[in-house]
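Fold in tokens:
===
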Amino acid sequence: MNDGRIRCPWTLAPGYATRYHDVEWGVPRFDDAGQFEFLVLESAQAGLSWLTILNRREGYRRCFANFEPEKVARFTENDVQRLLADPGIIRNRKKIESTIKNARLFLELASKHGSFSKYIWSFVDGRPVKNTWKKTEDVPVFTPAAEKMAKDMKKMGFGFLGPTVLYAHMQATGMVNDHLVSCFRHAEVNALTL
């Protein structure tokens, strides 16, 4: 998009949906619905490009009950077979089965902590980390908080959510602001959480 605004360089990839960067990426999500949606998408992304998953987002929304964890947690083997036949998502049995199991664990954590958001935001003391990266190369692949989160969630049985995937989740849901300081969204996202 050539509107004169400076964006994070990764938005320049061919076919990239700039709207996602400009509207969603890095905006703090304190709602369980948003947290679950991005956990589903981020775990599906493991080993693939984010653009691949973003382009299938509506397929995931349709296939995974509009990202309602209560419904996904009740999926059966028949649902797994249905999903394996749907070209609107990544048809990987292990990822599909993991998403169903993750939905059940998500609900357990939500029940135990009052909400899943309370649990996951506790890894950053309930407030977004406001980074000041100048170059893409400065942005880490994961942080100690993401490692700690991954270890805790793996111990509970979550799948396809290692430290790199969970750091991407933290970026997407605004637990960290990783827009470069030169990007017009950096200041806007910081202003959301003064």
In short: Strands lie at 129-130, 176-177. The chain has one domain: 18-191.
